[in-house]
């Protein structure tokens, strides 16, 4: 009887040890997987940042020179937006914002919106979405050139009342069979431009201090 009890105790310890090892391995795998995902996301963002603001236009580290802002009127409630600043010779060249269009057809659409210091768009990219393949995914540069139409646009080109898709009386094309997706993107880009215009001084304040 004593031998059986001793065996069961030892077996329990062995099972417990293997359980701990298993949990540890799962935790380590999860940790390294998350690290890999985070690194892949960082590289993807950097690739898109460089497309919008090439290295020759700035002399700072875009990923290190950031601000985090929020504004219910422009970006929605409880939504943080990262602003990357492109700087050269201590002068602001452009900002790249990360707004989210919350009203895509299949959910939120994460964007990069690059704006020159003078308020002109350098470009827009969709970096994450779940829009319908063959329809709403035309916001991707590898699916169509639709999103390139934002390049060079300003709040005066077109005037604000025409910052809509053509079906709504605006300037921008919609997709065949898909209006909700481009409508959401146009709205988010407009709001980002308006936010920049209203808050431009806050992006250059630290540069002025550095000059003094």
The low-pLDDT segments are none
Structural domain count:
2
Give the SSE order as H and E letters: HEHEEEEEH
Helix segment tally: 3
**Cα-to-Cα separation, first versus last residue:** 86 Å
* Percentage of residues assigned to helices: 40-55%
Strand percentage, roughly? 15-25%
Oligomer: single chain
Please summarize the sheet with the most strands: 6 strands, antiparallel
Q: Care to count the β-strands?
A: 6
Structural class: alpha+beta
Characterize the structure shown:
- With 212 residues, the chain is α+β, with helices and mostly antiparallel strands.
- It has 2 domains: 1-52; 57-206.
- Helices cover 41% and strands 20% of the residues.
- The chain has 3 helices and 6 strands; from the N terminus they run H-E-H-E-E-E-E-E-H.
- Strands 1, 2, 3, 4, 5 and 6 form a 6-stranded antiparallel β-sheet that branches.
- It starts with a helix and ends with a helix.
- The model has no long low-confidence stretch (mean pLDDT 87).
Describe the secondary structure blueprint for this structure.
Blueprint: H1 2-52, E1 66-69, H2 72-75, E2 81-88, E3 91-97, E4 100-104, E5 107-116, E6 121-128, H3 180-211
Antiparallel strand pairs: 1-2, 2-3, 3-5, 4-5, 5-6
Question: Which characteristics define this entry?
Answer:
212 residues; alpha+beta; 2 domains; six-stranded antiparallel sheet; 20% strand; extended
Write a compact overview of the structure shown.
With 212 residues, this protein is an alpha+beta fold.
């Amino acid at each position: 009887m004593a031998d059986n009890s001793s065996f069961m105790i030892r077996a329990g310890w062995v099972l417990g040890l293997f359980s701990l090892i298993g949990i540890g391995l799962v935790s380590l795998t999860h940790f390294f997987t998350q690290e890999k995902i985070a690194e892949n996301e960082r590289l993807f963002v950097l690739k898109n940042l460089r497309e919008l603001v090439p290295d020759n236009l700035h002399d700072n580290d875009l990923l290190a020179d950031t601000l985090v802002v929020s504004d219910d009127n422009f970006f929605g409630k409880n939504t943080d937006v990262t602003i990357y600043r492109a700087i050269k010779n201590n002068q602001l060249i452009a900002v790249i914002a990360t707004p989210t269009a919350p009203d895509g057809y299949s959910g939120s659409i994460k964007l990069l919106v690059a704006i020159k210091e003078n308020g002109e768009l350098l470009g827009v990219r969709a970096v994450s979405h779940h829009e319908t393949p063959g329809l709403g995914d035309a916001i991707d540069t590898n699916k169509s050139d639709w999103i390139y139409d934002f390049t060079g646009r300003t709040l005066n080109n077109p005037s604000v009342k025409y910052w809509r898709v053509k079906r709504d009386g605006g300037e921008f094309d919609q997709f065949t069979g898909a209006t909700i997706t481009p409508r959401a993107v146009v709205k988010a880009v407009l709001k980002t431009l308006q936010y920049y215009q209203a808050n431009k001084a806050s992006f250059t304040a630290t540069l002025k201090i550095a000059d003094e």
